[in-house]
Amino acid sequence: MSAAATPSSAPPAGLRFTNLMETLTVDVQRAESRPLNVPLIAPFTIATSRLDRVENVAVRVELRNGCVGWGEAPVLPFVTAEDQHTAMAKAKEACEVLTRRPAVALGVVLGEIAAVLPGHEFASVRAGVEMALIDAVANGIGVPLWRLFGGASNSITTDITVKFLTRHPIFEKMLILRDSE
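Given the sequence above, the corresponding structure tokens read:
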């Protein structure tokens, strides 16, 4: 890749994620999950729930070539189907599958993860395990994730839940950032 490439440039056709699903062989040496408990700077309150800390699951995947990737399974029991205990157990199960298998195409490995963590019930854990694996692969081929998934943009579409009729300091910062563009 050229040093003159701009942040918005897409990867060469052969390095697009969809192509790597079939052409890239993945050999996982180690995979593990651990609790990721982090206090929030400000409580998050919606409806009848108040959250003072997140209790997520971090996933680390190391390929046989030494490249490491990280993923995170967001756990919010009143939104996601998993609680942290269940997410830890299912992430451990998926990590065991990753380390027991021989080297195969990335798409095959992602299919096996989907089989272990099917449907909506384990979607958050599946996302965390997949992201750790894909991050390790991206590190292994020397392509940043943003480029692997098609490049960069000057704007994003997101969803944020803000308490009704409040002017939270975080909301004020978002307005300042928006108005500065």
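The first helix runs from residue 17 to 23. Try to locate this feature in the token string yourself.
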